[in-house]
Amino acid sequence: MRAAVLTGYRAPLDLTTVPDPDCPADGVVLKVLACGVCRSDWHAWSGADPDVALPHIPGHEFCGEVLAVGARVTRWTAGDRVIAPFILACGQCPACAAGHQTTCPTQVIPGFTHPGAFAERIAVPRADHNLTALPATMDPALAAALGCRVTTAWHALTDRAALKPGEWLAVFGSGGIGLSALLLAKAIGARVVMVDVVDEKLAHAKAHGADATVNAAKTDAPEAIRDLTGGGAHVAVEALGIAETTAAALKSLRKLGRMVQIGMPAGPHVTMPLPMDAVYSGQLALFGTRGMPAWRYPSLLNLIEGGRVDLTPLIARRVALSDASAELAAFDRPAPPGIAVITDFTA
């Protein structure tokens, strides 16, 4: 099969032919229909993720069609179209039994601990516990985006932060996670302030429902948010994983506010100085989040299929597998609005 292989950090991916994956006894092999190019893939490409060992096939936001089924699989047959979360849980440990599959101690992560979906095919273990049927009317490019950015934002807003209608949400970073949080929060009935340093991205967010925008390069973002919201946001989302925006997100909250760290801290941002005086005096709650348990997919899919949220503004570029290197390198600088999805695996 054709694949884009990471053979050197910060180097162009090697477009090459590799053996087709074997089908796990508890899993399936998918023909990849679409795969997003995510900032988390950039962490792998840049060498900042310790789980990645070279050579490696990146790609963790994918959907596909079942080509082969393992002997122990009961829920899926060849021809089924499915979505996979990027954290594949065992489904049997105490964490999984409690519904917390994203904390499964033996989790498998395609694109990081397991060959990913920058390829024509991918083997997906633990299929019965993790895969979800792709709605017949859903565009595969949109379905691929659900695997990380949308699902992570949905879990952060509805589970970790419990965002309520009428509350103010401040989103720091208007990339894929940020735009997902905006669109989902508006569907919930919240009011949203988007924060970025690129006017083009802020204009894009405003055009898709943001109640207000703040350019953090031109003003003090927490102060601006406190003014716009009458005292501070109820909930803040940090979508970049860097120290400056994490501190600013905490400072933007009103008393008893909740902040969710979605952005992955890596490299120099693994350890951050934080304004703990704001946490203490404001009695703030700080949550970490990563992915979404597979059992929560129906609530999100029902929201989409019911027409309560249109996620198509997320997709800015449908690209070929050969474009993956350029899309990864684009995360070295402020990227253009929207996300790129690989939909052509032949070019």
TrEMBL record:
Pfam families in alphabetical order: ADH_N, ADH_zinc_N
Using the record's annotation, list all stretches that form the Enoyl reductase (ER) domain.
Answer: 8-342
Which cofactors, by name?
Answer: Zn(2+)
Keywords from the UniProt entry: Metal-binding, Oxidoreductase, Zinc
SMART domains of this UniProt entry? PKS_ER
Cited CDD domains: Zn_ADH6 (cd08260)
What this protein is called in its record is Alcohol dehydrogenase
